[in-house]
Specification:
Order of helices and strands: HHHHHH
Shape: rod-shaped
Oligomer: single chain
Number of strands: 0
Distance between the termini: 85 Å
C-alpha cells in the first residue's frame, strides 16, 4: 500500500508536498525538543540554587556547632587558611555526594527507559544513551557550587577570634 501511494504521489507530481509536510513535522518536533530542553535547564538552574542554599545552611550550622573546636584549633596554631580549607572541603564533599546521588538516579532512569520496548515498533527501544562527558560536567558544577556555597561560612569560621570562640557555649 505504501509503495502504491508513493507511486501515485510521484505520478501526480505531489512529491514536494509530502517532503514539505515532513519538513514541517521535523521543524515542529525540533521546536518542541528545544522547548523541553529549555525547561529542563530552567528546572536544573532552580535546583542548583536551592541546593547551594541548602549546602550553605548546613555549613553555617556546622560552623555554629563547632565554634569551640575552631577556637581550640586556632589557639593551637591553625591558620585562617587551614580553617577555610577545612570548611570549603566539607562543602565540596557535600556537593559531590549530592551530585553522585543524582548521577546514579539518572543512570538508573536511562537504563530503565532504554530497556522497555516501544509499543507497535517491532520491539524497538528508545535511542537513549548515557554520556560520560556529562558526568565530568556534573562533578565540575558540583565542585563550583560547593565552593560558592561554602565560601561565606568558611570565611566566617576562619575569621573567628579564638578567645571568643573558646568562650562560646
Amino acid at each position: 500500500a505504501e509503495d502504491g501511494i508513493r507511486d501515485l504521489v510521484r505520478s501526480r507530481g505531489l512529491g514536494d508536498v509530502y517532503k514539505r509536510q515532513a519538513d514541517a513535522y521535523m521543524e515542529q518536533f525540533n521546536t518542541m525538543k528545544n522547548a523541553i530542553a529549555g525547561m529542563g535547564f530552567l528546572v536544573t538552574g532552580i535546583s542548583l540554587v536551592v541546593s547551594a542554599i541548602g549546602i550553605m545552611n548546613v555549613m553555617f550550622v556546622s560552623v555554629r556547632e563547632r565554634t569551640r573546636e575552631i577556637g581550640l584549633r586556632k589557639a593551637m596554631g591553625a591558620t585562617n587558611f587551614n580553617i577555610l580549607t577545612q570548611f570549603l572541603s566539607e562543602a565540596v564533599a557535600i556537593a559531590i555526594i549530592g551530585g553522585s546521588v543524582g548521577i546514579a538516579l539518572i543512570r538508573l532512569t536511562v537504563f530503565g527507559l532504554a530497556s522497555f520496548p516501544i509499543p507497535n515498533f517491532n520491539g524497538a527501544t528508545l535511542p537513549i544513551s548515557f554520556d560520560l562527558l556529562l558526568v565530568f560536567y556534573t562533578f565540575t558544577v558540583c565542585v563550583f557550587i560547593g565552593v560558592l556555597a561554602g565560601l561565606i561560612p568558611a570565611r566566617t569560621a576562619a575569621n573567628l577570634n579564638p578567645i571568643d570562640a573558646l568562650r562560646d557555649e
